[in-house]
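Researcher: Next sequence.
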Amino acid sequence: MDREIRKAVLVLNRAGLPTTGSCAGHADHGSPAPWIKINSEKHLSASQILKLKNCVSSLLKDFYKNRKIDSYIKLRIKSGHAGFWIYSGQDFLKWREIIDERSKMINVGKKVGKEIISRTEQEKRRKTLFARQEEMAAFAHFLAKNR
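Model: Next structure:
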């Protein structure tokens, strides 16, 4: 688990929100922004997932009640095949689409080359990554303080 996101994952788990994956985001590979997948190894029902998603939505609403933040940093929720993601920035959605497409290719036996992140894209990621990681950390602090 990436050091920069560990506290957020632990706080979410302590709050009864089971996590199955996370990433702090990286400039040179992988996700351009931090994310945490909320789901359970116990295969929660759709209604249980919806209840958890509504809980996180409410927590994020409270978190942003008196907080002004740029949209490229703001934490959001995206539903997945199982569970949902808490993530920062729209870049994450573009990256998820690429990952989903690569997974489909692998599942049908196609070879997929290594992901290449251009220097221009790496520089763009570096400019926003720290602020996005700080936003996830601030949300973890909010949860720890208010749960």
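Model: Strands lie at 19-23, 35-38, 75-79, 84-88. The longest helix spans residues 119-146.
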